[in-house]
Request: fold
Amino acid sequence: MAPRNWVFLLLVFLIHGILADPASQVTQIPFSCSKLSNICNSILYQHNGLTEKNISSLYSVDASQIQTIDNGDSQDHLITVPCSCQNVNNTVAYFYDVSYLIKPRDTFLGVSDQLYSGQAWIGDEDEGFKANTSVTLHLLCGCAEIDSQIMVTYTVQQGDTLIDIANRLSAEVGELQTVNNVLLGEPGFIQPGWVLFVPMYKNGIPPPRPPASKKNIHTDESLAANSNFIANVRTAESTPRGIFTLDNHMEVYEGAPRFSGNHKWVIIFVVLIVVIALLLCMSIIMFMKRKRFQEHHDKEKAKVVSKTMTFHRSASAHTRHLSKENMEDITGFDTERPLVYDLDEIAEATNDFDDSRKIGEGGYGSVYFGILGGKEVAIKKMRSNKSKEFLAELKVLCKIHHINVVELLGFASGDDHLYLVYEFISNGSLSEHLHDPLLKGHQPLSWTARAQIALDTAKGIEYIHDHTKERYVHRDIKTSNILLDNGLRAKVADFGLAKLVGRTNDDDFIATRLVGTPGYLPPESVKELHVTTKTDVFAFGVVLAELITGKRALMRDNQEPNKMKSLITVITRVFEDSDPEGALVSIRDGSLRDSYPMDDLYKMAEVSYWCLSEDPVNRPEVGEIVESLARIVMSSIEWEASLGGSSQVFSGVFDGR
Reply:
């Protein structure tokens, strides 16, 4: 942008800031939070007239989480969801994530308005909104500190008043105004499309009481700090008054002083003088630097040419290790093509694969920590004779984009090695957190953290089974292939054995060899090499058993040390016992101590036992598992909340808050 244009825009914004009425400045602000492991139950208000079946699918919730509510001549819905603290595009706030499979002609704004009541938080979804791909939508939610309240995310509709909203949702108008800074400038004014947070009383508004402290809502930061956010909630109805828009984001001007007419023109005159002087200075500076700028520009062009040549050299090097058919597989992806990295970049990122950078090792190669382009990454180094596994993972992850699946960034090849570059997941594998965690520098996981990890993992598996254009079987689900981020949220990793299957009832195939990890393999795979989606379900049942017991899938038998005992047998014996609850308590992870809800522990064990059915026909679909675990997570959160904050629900571990 030319300097004169830039200064002109600056002048317009300055004058607007002076003349605009502060009461007309509006913003929809998400609840801020400080700990990424914070989690609570929250309610999303749905007014799009969808059926409960559609809501259940769109929001990944069970029917028990959906409640109807009268709204005049129509019926809307209240959807109870687990609301967690997340960092979304550098905004740390409370969100509930859903996955949406984009259809032709879909737009982010249309999907948000027509399916999710305009409650999706804007990131870079518009740029990545491509048909037949999945996108994660972050729906705004909030946490109430008072046990008698639950926070409702509500989108203002035509004809609404604050009193109507408060009455409909059993809330007090004063508290509603306090929570939403957008209402402070002009309390009586609301506009269709605004997203408000409503502190709803679960059992109705209590009788009048003495004025309460202003700090009755859990924000971790003062509400004043929320004014630093730039509003990212956009709906088709929302047309805020008196606000300039730039790049589809609303700039927030709050707390501007009121000026008399004379004072305004004096200030405008002063601003004009300053701007003119600034223009003169900038013109002189630009004239003096023009030649230097041109030289710099020429150098940058040379760098681009050099980088392009490097890219093609890397691609050429790759062809030396992969067949023509395999290269056609890569270049023929119907979604995003993976980025090809130069070998020098890979070597520099890992300090020439220094042992101090090694963070993992498996049957198909070693994994190293690195930094590429200022971003932390994990780089898997594989021998070139592992091209089959390399291509399997490359082909699958290039087509999969989900919050609970590790993201592939690119690849490289050379020196008789193949390299896969992933996002770096900082908290290691679930296995490290379950098996001797203290020796690996981790604190034992709390019950609620385990339940959430189970749900996250199930959602990742459900996505590759049911929500992609092509159905995949992972074939190596295990705790060491489940990675945890800083907020103890889980991502499924290592797709080197993934296999494409059909979407018919006969979607199994016969493998040419037995693959997978002992202790996680179902009987039909061991005996007949059959592989179906139920193969992953069986392995996930073992993962649930590990979350419950803290034991490995295979362990030494105490009575016969020369033999290995399967965790599958341990879970099976629980439900063959005359007192299954007592048997379950005797095998539960000792690091849980007594900090767990017995009902939810038992329900998770039932899901594990269901998954471990010997006949694959009797095993559940992953969608059924997700529904069951979602109920367990919600119940566990309520149990934690009932303890009055004395447990580790917010930290996820047992080392205190």
Q: What stands out?
A: Residues 453 and 490 are 5 Å apart (CA to CA). The chain has a mean pLDDT of 77.
